[in-house]
Amino acid sequence: MQKGVRFLDTKDMSLNENNICEKCGAEALYYIDELNCWLCENCKNEEEELEKISERLEKKFNKRVYSFDIAELLNCLSKDEIYNIARNLGLAKISGLKKDELLNNLIENYESLIEERLLLFEEERYRLLRSYLDKDGVKIFNDIDEEEVEKSAYFIQQGFIYPTLKDGIAVFLMPQIVQKIIEDKNTLDYRRIIKQNGEIINVYRGMNKAYGILNIESIKSILSQYDLYNDNIEELIRESGYYYSEYREDSKLFVNNEIQDIDSLVETIEKECAELEYAKISKEELLVMSNRDYGFSTKAGKAFCKEFSNTFNSNREMLQAIMDDLSIDIQENEVNESIDKILDVMEVDEENVRNVAANLMSKFANKIRIWKYKGYSINDIKALKSTVKNEINIGRNEPCICGSGKKYKKCCGKNK
Asked: Tens of pLDDT along 250-302?
């Protein structure tokens, strides 16, 4: 047990009569002495992770200077740190340079590199950077919420902000030159650029959750269906991946970070759905799917949440966890298997209750967009097969109409 953390037991109950987490309202299990509050398992883990981040940053803070001059801020960094900022900003021909050469090269090109990188931003990143202007270029670390702390790591790696100390207090600081560039970008022309960027980026983020894995040609083709064009689409998507941490680039494919076995998924798609076009999804749905808790905003998610919460005592956090777990687990497993895992974790043992819960989850799961089906849901695939079967008279020994590569009698015609 960590120092300052106590596990909830019977003698502690008087300290927290409702036995609830004071951050999210879930069941409390731990009392945190430093915070003087009760937390659930998830919130305790979040606090510990935030503390680890704070400890790592504190080590960095102690080595930094408090200055708004970019040369002074860069000069106190190690060669590796300078190299990483230069590389992340796209500075060319820096391999093999000595520290002084690398430093001078970065300082000389810093302003133009920042200007160029800002052309790949969307409204969210620009808005976060502009928030520093309201704080005279300085934010106190302890005043920043956890989500912004995580996203600030991106701006630190890009050299937009720098962790340091002010009167012994940990802060994030934006150099004067960056403040000026950010202020000068507050124009209608730049606003139009980042609005268009944001639309492309967020539509793709929705595509990433719906299709799971796409090459850049398919991405551009799908985006064109919504009249979304840009000469820098590939660079826009690649760069936003570092910020949102939802996907990665691997072997010329953009891949959802939940996918571990890329080769297996690609093989399955080529084997079972090679002739199937990608599911046509409305632009509005893809934009909704770009949100972290998009399940609550989809038609299927709304119906599931309403039915499940009316039947069982469940809060928003539980509903979110069920939808998230189903959406990921079902990509590799059968619906019933995924549902059984969740019900086991929830410790639902009574048969009637388990059957009701499983039925509600199954209705939702069958509407989830599946990566190996190119964004179609299980219900969609059943409907497609039914339509084709009604339109085509196919021999039992001919290749199946679904594109699986199997004979019809061993696939869709198995029970016919």
From this structure: 989 999 999 999 999 999 999 989 889 999 999 999 999 999 889 899 999 99
Extract the tokens encoding 72. Answer: 């002074």
Q: How many angstroms separate the CA atoms of 278 and 300, rounded? A: 20
3-state secondary structure at position 67 = coil
Q: Residue 57: its pLDDT value, please?
A: 63
- Write the single-letter amino acid at 118: L
Q: In this structure, is the dihedral angle defined by the CA atoms of residues 216, 221, 224 and 226, taken in order, positive or negative?
A: negative
The model's pLDDT over 308-343, given as tens digits with 9 standing for 90+, comes to 999 988 899 999 999 999 999 999 999 999 999 999
Name the residue type at position 350: E
With contact defined as beta carbons under 8 Å apart, do 339 and 326 qualify?
Answer: yes
186: exposed, middle or buried (Cβ count in 10 Å: 0-12, 13-18, 19+): exposed
Given a cut of 70, whether residue 240 has pLDDT beyond it is yes
Q: State the pLDDT confidence band at 58, using cuts at 50, 70 and 90.
A: low
- Please, what's the b/e burial string for 317-353 (b: 16 or more CB within 10 A of its CB; e: otherwise)? eebbbbbebbbebbbbeebeebbbebbeeeebeeeee
- pLDDT bucket at 403, cuts 50 / 70 / 90: low
CA distance linking residue 288 with residue 294, whole number of Å: 6
- Bridge partners (DSSP) of residue 303 are none
Taking the C-alpha atoms of 249, 251, 254 and 260 in order, what is their torsion angle to the nearest 10 degrees? -90
Whole-structure pTM value: 0.79
| 8 Å CB contact between 161 and 174 | yes
Q: Is 32 helix (H, G, I), strand (E, B) or coil?
A: strand
User: What's the pLDDT tens digit per position in 101-136?
Assistant: 999 999 999 999 999 999 999 999 999 999 999 999
Q: Which of 136, 134, 146, 178 is nearest to 160 (CA)?
A: 178
